[in-house]
Design brief:
Distance between the termini: 6 Å
CATH superfamily: Ribonuclease Z/Hydroxyacylglutathione hydrolase-like
Order of helices and strands: EEHHEEHHEEEEHEEEEEHEEE
Helix content: 10-25%
Structural class: alpha+beta
Mean pLDDT: 97
Radius of gyration: 17 Å
CATH class: Alpha Beta
CATH architecture: 4-Layer Sandwich
Number of strands: 16
Largest sheet: 7 strands, mixed
Number of domains: 1
CATH topology: Metallo-beta-lactamase, Chain A
Number of helices: 6
Length: 277
């Protein structure tokens, strides 16, 4: 898809499954299962969307999916389907791993940084050997020393070997012209969303603030979120802005629709699908 002078492409690293109750928090199952049906183990199917931004000067990758480092047992628990893989998706667009100049992770949960590193023999090495990785410093430090509540979400070997190539950010920052990050706390304290802007057109990779279309209503917040009231405040701040400006919103985990636009209908936000990948 063209976004001004830029090209953006929604790439997939396959799908995985998480418990529907965890994905929807206090929302009752009779409501959420109408939007995302659960399997016999109460797992809902989720996408693993990564965004490729081609500025003409830089090839930028936002998120790196879940990767292939899980053993068979954990891959089955999370119902991982790798019919699509991020490296193959890049190849489909004529890019090798070494063609990526910049990697931006919104946060470091294992389903967002899986291809930051890869196995090489008995070691883990950066997958994108020529890229700079951009990450909020506070999120990096938390990922290295997580709490008991979220320890299972952080796997150090999936991101730490890329530290020599990592540029640490503190708060809002322009990464390159037309691409900037902004804090959107709630899911974790220091999660960042990514704004892409060119020739008056804008897109926002919203990350786990709104993981799927089903999570657009303000109170539909995941049980995973460490700071749910901050999630609510971030959604109330960002979503009306996206609707007013007719910006593209990119979801990380919608298995069917990677992006679209928001409109306001009778005082409520409504989703409008946009074609193209």
């Amino acid at each position: 898809m063209k976004l001004g002078a830029f090209e953006i492409h929604a790439l997939s690293d396959g799908t995985f499954g998480l418990d529907g109750g965890q994905m929807f928090g206090v929302v009752p199952k009779p409501l959420w299962e109408k939007k995302l049906p659960a399997d016999e183990r109460n797992r809902v199917r989720l996408g693993l969307t990564c965004l490729l931004v081609r500025t003409g000067k830089y090839n930028i990758l936002i998120e790196t999916g879940i990767g292939e480092k899980f053993d068979a047992k954990r891959a089955e628990i999370y119902n991982i389907d790798h019919s699509l893989r991020l490296p193959d998706e890049l190849s489909r667009h004529g890019l090798s791993l070494d063609d990526i100049d910049i990697v931006i992770n919104t946060h470091l949960h294992f389903d967002h940084c899986g291809w930051n590193t890869r196995r090489e023999g008995s070691q883990f090495v950066p997958t994108f050997s020529k890229a700079r990785y951009f990450m909020q410093r506070a999120e990096w430090e938390h990922a290295l020393h997580p709490s008991e509540r979220d320890r299972a979400s952080y796997l150090e070997e999936w991101f730490a070997p890329a530290e020599p190539q990592t540029v640490f950010v503190e708060g809002a920052r322009e990464i390159v012209a037309g691409v900037r990050v902004e804090l959107a706390p709630g899911h974790v304290r220091d999660m960042q969303c990514v704004w892409i802007e060119s020739e008056g057109r804008r897109a926002c990779f919203i990350s786990d603030l709104v993981p799927t279309r089903a999570h657009l209503p303000f109170p539909w917040i995941m049980a995973f979120d460490l700071y749910p009231l901050d999630t609510l405040a971030s959604k109330r701040r960002l979503l009306p802005q996206l609707a007013e400006n007719r910006d593209l919103i990119v979801f990380p985990h919608d298995a069917e629709v990677p992006w679209g636009m928001l409109t306001e209908v009778d005082g409520k936000l409504a989703f409008q699908q946009v074609s193209g990948t």
